[in-house]
Amino acid sequence: MADETAAAFGRVPAGTRLNDTYEIDALIAAGGMGEVYRGHLIETGDQVAIKLIRPELVGNEAALALFRKEASALHHLHHEAIIRYFVFAIDPALRRPYLAMEFVDGEPLSELIRRKPLDVEQCLVLARRLAAGLASAHEIGIVHRDISADNVILPGGDIRRAKLIDFGIAKSTLSGATTVIGDGFAGKYNYASPEQLGLFGGVVTAQSDIYSLGLLLAEALRGRPLDMGHSHVETVERRRTVPALDGVDGRLAPLIGAMLQPVPADRPASMQAVRDWTEAPAAQPSGQRRGGRLRDVEAADSGGRRGRPRPRRRRACRDDLGPWPRSRPRYTGPLRGRPVRARAATRARRGEP
Fold first, then answer.
1. I want to staple 186 with a disulfide (CB 3.0 to 4.6 A). Which of 34, 60, 169, 346 is the partner?
2. pLDDT computed for residue 200 by the predictor
3. Is 89 exposed, middle or buried, given 0-12, 13-18 or 19+ CB atoms closer than 10 A?
4. d(C-alpha 242, C-alpha 260), whole Å
């Protein structure tokens, strides 16, 4: 009876074999375009995740193109923070395309932060991990476009091992590359960048992922998303300014505020810049925002050397003698009385007021 019910809804029953290579074990989740199953490699028993396109979409060319796009994106990505891809194939019996991928035994980030928001240190770990994975994607011209708390899986609930999934609407930024969606809207409204909604030129680049990651980090710290609008009109209008960061810890507010700049060029220059900031956040206030922008710590300094931060200004202190640099050497000679009194005595001898 269970198998009949599953078949009625297009679900694949346990025990089904795909190309005599993989075997279906159980349904994990179902979405608008596909179903994800836990399965195993018949020859070795190794667990895999199998994503099958929904049966009613088999003849839909746009859906098939997106499915192939995800396979292509994952095929070229090799990073520990991104789900591993094994194969894209079509089972002759089911006549449905499927993707075999790394199986991750864990929960979505959305479920974790629903129970309890992340603290600052946890959020830094998450930001560093996801920024590193996305930087690797951007380096080969792939923009995720669908970053969300649901698309981050935590193996064993461990934030340090977080993995990005669902590259189904990823876009290539390589010259001449096209997608089914192009620069049109793709993703989730709660995480969409202004340019994904057509603002500021409407061209989707790696800066769009930086904006979406900023929204994700704010949500992780607050335990709930920022209020970015409830209708299409509100959603667009609230992308014209930096949102209020109520509930975001002040230690991360400068970074997140920079990532949520409306104009793409005013955001951090790269995911690597975001990652570098997380490595030493306490040192960043002297290197943050020039005209609203977090400076890319990878940029060449005045000597043309990369990767070295500019020297910080010496802070000045003030005492009875006026301002002096904090780093001045301590006086080790004989004490001759207080300098102010000495000056007063000298003026008195000279008859000066």
1. 169
2. 87
3. middle
4. 6
Boundary (domain end) residue, out of 87, 102, 117: 102
Counted domains in the chain: 2
Residue-wise pLDDT tens digits, 151-190: 999 999 999 999 998 765 444 443 333 333 344 444 467 8
Distance CA 24, CA 16 (A): 5
Q: 237 and 147: one domain?
A: yes
268: tokens are 């951090």
For residue 221, pLDDT beyond 80: yes
Within a domain: 292: no
CA 284 to chain centre: 19
Burial class (CB in 10 A: 0-12, 13-18, 19+), 296: middle
Instruction: Tell whether 307 is covered by a domain.
Output: no
Closest listed residue to residue 262, CA positions, set 240, 287, 278, 283:
240
User: Whole-angstrom Cα distance, residue 134 to residue 122?
Assistant: 18
The residue written with tokens 């079509």 in the block is 90
Which residue numbers are catalytic? 146
Q: Within 10 A of 353 (CB to CB), how many other CB atoms are there?
A: 4
Alpha-carbon span 32 to 34, nearest angstrom? 6
Q: Is the pLDDT of residue 116 over 80?
A: yes
Neighbours of 97 (CB within 10 A): 20
Task: For strands 322-325 and 316-319, give the pairing.
Answer: antiparallel
Q: How far apart are CA 90 and CA 255, in angstroms?
A: 44
Asked if 272 contacts 131 with a C-beta cutoff of 8 angstroms, the reply is yes
Beta strands in the chain (DSSP E): 17-18, 22-30, 34-41, 47-53, 85-91, 96-102, 106-108, 142-143, 152-155, 163-164, 171-172, 316-319, 322-325
Quote the tokens at residue 160.
């340090």
β-sheet bridge partners, residue 70: none
User: pTM for the full model?
Assistant: 0.71
| Count of CB atoms situated within 10 Å of the CB of 116 | 9
Q: Are residues 97 and 217 in the same domain?
A: no
Q: Which two tokens stand for residue 312?
A: 């910080």
Comparing C-alpha atoms, which of 42, 57, 68 is closest to residue 10? Answer: 57
Buried b (16+ CB within 10 A) or exposed e, 176-203: eeebbbebeebbbbbbbbbbbbebbeee
The token duo for 195 is 């340019």
